[in-house]
Design a protein that fits this description.
single chain; alpha/beta; Rossmann fold; five-stranded parallel sheet; 5 helices
């Protein structure tokens, strides 16, 4: 079962994400902020995708993404940013940190799952080459 790490300080959003992802057959690990997310990534090197909130206490999503990409097990693991922030500067910083897709809030489960399927399919192709 594919493991996905979700990092968001909103318990309500984590519940929504978990429900959508588990309903689609994914194994979900949750983190409550960037610091917790970085620790959970280190503890779970088999994670195949990270969904990261932008605005979080203790460590924001872009900083966390940069730090995760420094971990050898996560150098090629895709990351999505979940946010209401859509400025060019923030998107550019996200791309630089390794974010490959942006999912807007409020969460639309069907759109999220479609994006996840495409990303994981592409990621599997990259890994097999």
């Amino acid at each position: 079962m594919t493991k996905i790490l979700i990092i968001d300080d909103s318990e309500t959003l984590r519940i929504q994400l978990r429900s959508a992802l588990e309903g689609d057959g994914y194994d979900v690990i949750e983190a409550i902020d960037g610091v917790d997310g970085l620790n959970k990534a280190k503890e779970n090197p088999e994670v195949k995708l990270l969904i990261i909130d932008f605005n979080m206490p203790n460590m924001d999503g872009i900083t966390m993404a940069r730090k995760v990409k420094e971990l050898p097990d996560f150098a090629k693991v895709p990351m999505m940013m979940l946010t209401t922030e859509i400025s060019r500067d923030i998107k550019a910083a996200g791309r630089e940190a390794g974010i490959i897709a942006w999912v807007g809030k409020p969460l639309m489960a069907e759109s999220l799952l479609t994006a996840i399927h495409k990303i994981l399919e592409k990621y599997a192709l990259v890994q097999s080459n």
